[in-house]
């Protein structure tokens, strides 16, 4: 029935949501403010003792902070009175003193037809239930017993049996004077192509009634008893009552169980749902023989914010999960997502519960994967990223998936999560490539260590160690002051060895969160390492005097400073490596080659500091303000003299 323009707006204006809800709840006097229409009570949709159900009378909406039920006066009446939309309108209009508009005769006839079809379906339910208890249903009963379905379970789900007869149900319905068009319109029979009587749609099958959220039987699912039947499972054809893309098996009971705090679990078929419910997971639903549709996904999200997809642990089940991800990405909203409980290979939820019990499935549900993790696995599992081209292909594929997300905030968080996992994959020496390193929900970078050549170098004295500490500190502080520059130096920073553990952890956090901006980056560092770490770094005189720190946000100054400091570190480490090897040669036979290698390394180092001018104190200042200890060259010269002196005479 169509309503005239403005009718619903006037109805909502005349209706007090507080009065409508007040018939079903007891208001909490301590939390409620009736003068402002701000009312609180225990939720009428799930069992609780605290007042978590909030009604905003001025806006005309309610919301439960426990089960997340929300809506307006119309939806409240629909849910609490178990009526459809038009019936809820009638109830509210009567209370508001409004006259319902005249019904469209065609719409009335259509509604009446749907009611008649639903009545025919109920007769069919009872017929199939009776047939299961006859001699013809003995094989079906044996099968249900082998599957562990007790009689109480069969009653709960109204499981029946359709004997292998062409007109068994047809004759039963005709004996009750039901018209042909209603039987055919309900999808219970099909017309004969040979001019004979219509024949039953379901024959030789165990029957599962499919009910809508209101509890009306709108279709059947039938499992074939004959193992050679072409269709193991068969659903009713689409009718005025039944659209399989808009229906979930066990929808109504699952919604009620989810309202009481149970997780919504999405399984593959009827038997999985029944096994889940009997195992204590009452909020279980299943699509009907097809991939999950957008409408079904929205239906799930109206029941729970994070449905758990529990598909079979085989290739087909994994493909189905991937299809759900592709469908869901554009539809994600804040707080609305999916998680995935991957069954052991070759098992479905029914198999797992019967073999290992409820606890095994509960563990999988508790540890269900977030959607982003399964997305990452799909793009990386079984692949080798040993070339820049392959890495670029991975980045492109993931970027294309992330761009499907319409919500900018969610898209940003997905980008960060993918970046985290990419870091794990391509930096195995700092983290496990098999799984994210997490403790208490936070990523924990592994400890970094100095290069072996650095540890063994004869030049790693107090002065050199401090000099390296200074340079790394300037680089990290420059990145903190201007995180936008991080992407230009990402590879070099990833390869930067930090002997100081605090520096190593700072480096990792900067790489992971630089995209979020300076303020967010500092917040992450403070949360992970404490505010003292930043204060300690920024209090060092050489860091405070660094040009990027004094000019935060200046990209050019930061670019020049970081590039020069990285170049100097490379030069110094090259010298350290040569000296380390030369020190080993001293113990054996040294020749001119040792001296030549040291002179070449020294020249490389000297080039890095040649342009620097002498400072008033014991430091030389570089063009960008970085300092180099003058004593290094003196110690190097002394070492070179020592090598020449100890060289064997010919």
TrEMBL record:
A zinc finger (CHC2-type) spans 43-67. Its EC number is 2.7.7.101. Its cofactor is Zn(2+). PROSITE patterns: TOPRIM. Residues 431-452 are annotated as: Disordered. It catalyses: ssDNA + n NTP = ssDNA/pppN(pN)n-1 hybrid + (n-1) diphosphate. Binds 1 zinc ion per monomer. GO terms for molecular function: DNA binding; DNA-directed RNA polymerase activity; zinc ion binding. Keywords: DNA replication, DNA-binding, DNA-directed RNA polymerase, Magnesium, Metal-binding, Nucleotidyltransferase, Primosome, Transcription, Transferase, Zinc, Zinc-finger. Residues 431-440 have a biased composition (Basic residues). It holds the Pfam family DNAG_N. The keyword Oxidoreductase does not apply. Transmembrane segments: none annotated. The keyword Transport does not apply. It is an enzyme of class 2 (transferase). GO terms for cellular component: cytoplasm; DNA-directed RNA polymerase complex; primosome complex. InterPro entries: DNA_primase_core_N_sf, DNA_primase_DnaB-bd, DNA_primase_DnaG, DNA_primase_Znf_CHC2, DnaG_bac, DNAG_N, DnaG_primase, TOPRIM_DnaG_bac. One of its GO terms (biological process) is DNA replication, synthesis of primer. Residues 262-344 form the Toprim domain. Contains an N-terminal zinc-binding domain, a central core domain that contains the primase activity, and a C-terminal DnaB-binding domain. Monomer. Interacts with DnaB. RNA polymerase that catalyzes the synthesis of short RNA molecules used as primers for DNA polymerase during DNA replication. Belongs to the DnaG primase family. This is DNA primase. It comes from Roseovarius aestuarii. The lineage of its organism: Bacteria, Pseudomonadati, Pseudomonadota, Alphaproteobacteria, Rhodobacterales. The gene is dnaG.
């Amino acid at each position: 029935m169509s309503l005239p323009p403005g009718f619903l707006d006037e109805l909502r204006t005349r209706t007090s949501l507080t009065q409508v809800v007040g018939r079903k709840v007891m208001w909490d006097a301590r939390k409620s403010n009736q003068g402002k229409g701000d009312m609180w009570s225990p939720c009428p949709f799930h069992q609780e003792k605290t007042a978590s159900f909030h009604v905003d009378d001025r806006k005309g909406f309610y919301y439960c902070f426990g089960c997340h039920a929300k809506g307006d006066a119309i939806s409240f009446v629909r849910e609490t009175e178990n009526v459809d939309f038009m019936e809820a309108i009638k109830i509210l209009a009567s209370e508001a003193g409004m006259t319902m508009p005249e019904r469209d005769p065609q719409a009335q006839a259509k509604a009446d037809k749907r009611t008649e079809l639903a009545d025919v379906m109920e007769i069919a339910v009872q017929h199939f239930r009776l047939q299961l208890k006859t001699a013809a249903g003995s094989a079906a009963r044996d099968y249900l017993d082998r599957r562990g379905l007790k009689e109480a379970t069969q009653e709960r789900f109204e499981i029946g049996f359709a004997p292998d007869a062409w007109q068994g149900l047809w004759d039963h319905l005709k004996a009750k004077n039901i018209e042909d068009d209603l039987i055919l319109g309900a999808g219970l029979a099909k017309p004969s192509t040979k001019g004979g009587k219509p024949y039953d749609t379901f024959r030789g099958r165990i029957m599962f009634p499919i009910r809508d959220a209101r509890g009306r039987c709108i279709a059947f699912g039938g499992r074939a008893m004959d193992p050679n039947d072409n269709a193991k499972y068969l659903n009713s054809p689409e009718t005025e009552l039944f659209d399989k893309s808009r229906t979930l098996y066990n929808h109504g009971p699952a919604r009620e169980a989810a309202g009481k705090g149970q997780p919504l679990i999405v399984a593959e078929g009827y038997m999985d749902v029944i096994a889940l419910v009997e195992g204590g997971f009452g909020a279980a639903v299943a699509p009907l023989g097809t991939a999950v549709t957008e409408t079904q996904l929205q239906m799930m999200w109206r029941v729970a914010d994070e449905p758990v997809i529990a598909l079979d642990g085989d290739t087909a089940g994994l493909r189905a999960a991937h299809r759900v991800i592709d469908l869901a990405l554009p539809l994600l909203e804040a707080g609305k997502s999916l998680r995935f409980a991957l069954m052991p290979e070759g098992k479905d939820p029914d198999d797992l519960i019967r073999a290992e019990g409820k606890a095994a499935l509960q563990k999988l549900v508790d540890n269900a994967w977030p959607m982003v993790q399964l997305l990452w696995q799909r793009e990386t599992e079984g692949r080798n990223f040993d070339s820049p081209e392959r890495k670029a292909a991975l980045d492109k594929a993931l970027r294309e998936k992330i761009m499907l997300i319409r919500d900018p905030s969610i898209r940003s968080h997905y980008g960060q999560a993918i970046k985290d996992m990419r870091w794990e994959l391509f930096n195995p020496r700092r983290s496990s490539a098999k799984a994210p390193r997490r403790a208490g929900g936070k990523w924990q970078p592994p400890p970094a260590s100095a290069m072996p050549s650095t540890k063994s170098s004869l030049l790693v004295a107090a002065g050199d160690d401090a000099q390296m500490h200074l340079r790394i500190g300037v680089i990290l502080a420059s990145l903190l002051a201007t995180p936008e520059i991080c992407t230009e130096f990402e590879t070099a920073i990833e390869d930067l060895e930090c002997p100081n553990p605090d520096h190593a952890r700072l480096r990792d956090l900067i790489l992971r969160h630089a995209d979020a901006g300076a303020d967010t980056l500092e917040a992450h560092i403070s949360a992970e390492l404490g505010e003292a770490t930043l204060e300690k770094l920024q209090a060092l005189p050489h860091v405070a005097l660094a040009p990027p720190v004094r000019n935060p946000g200046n990209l050019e100054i930061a670019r020049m400073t970081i590039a020069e400091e990285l170049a100097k570190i490379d030069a110094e480490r090259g010298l350290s490596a040569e000296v380390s090897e030369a020190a080993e040669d001293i113990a054996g036979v040294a020749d001119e080659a040792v001296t030549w290698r040291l002179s070449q390394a020294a020249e490389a180092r000297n080039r890095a500091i040649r342009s620097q001018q002498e400072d008033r104190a014991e430091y030389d200042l570089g063009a960008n303000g970085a300092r180099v200890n003058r004593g290094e060259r003196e110690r190097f010269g002394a070492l070179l003299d020592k090598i020449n002196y100890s060289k064997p005479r010919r």
